Amino acid sequence: MTLRIGDTVPDFEAETTEGRIKFHDWIDGSWAVLFSHPKDFTPVCTTELGTMAGLKPEFDKRGVKIIGLSVDPLDSHQRWSQDIADVTGHAPNYPMIADTDLNVAKRFGMLPADAGETAEGRTPVDNQTVRYVVAIGPDKKVKLILTYPMSTGRNFAEILRAIDSLQLTAEHSVATPADWQQGQDVIIAPSLSDEAAKQRFPQGWEAKKPYIRVTKQPGA
Q1: Enzyme catalytic residues
Q2: The whole model's pTM is what?
Q3: What domains are defined for the chain?
């Protein structure tokens, strides 16, 4: 399958480093981020897992659950955790899915259906497409998908920035412009008429073009 923004995220059951989960139940009405890795003990992913652990308080503050995935078994995840702590100063403090039968990677479209049914013997290059970030809303629908190559470490500050935008725009009839940061001006949604916008944004706006109405961020 091909996962698209707006799709309901696949449900699955899997073993994790924090026990067995049913994914939809685990989300449980929260925002969530799933980020996947082609294999344990790979250099770029080692730095990413530690970075995510260090940023977990920021995700917690936003009410976002985080979960990792790698197509290796639990005992491998647990051994890798020590390396991650040694390299980054932060051991994973969130669940890591053990996707040994490749089921989750296939459900998310990270691997083709004919990729086999075991992670055993697979190399990082075999799994190089297992490099996803998926942001999921409380409605269990996909809000954001990012895919990275193995050679490029993910920018988790950008993921937090995107979540700030997703949460803001889910609550208010606004969009965020290029390079937007928390607290900066936003764009009133084109779907909102001027009359309706006056009710929502009594402070007014600057019309840079008829279709670009810039206003202060709600609640800022």
Answers
A1: 45, 139
A2: 0.93
A3: 13-153 (3.40.30.10), 172-215 (3.30.1020.10)
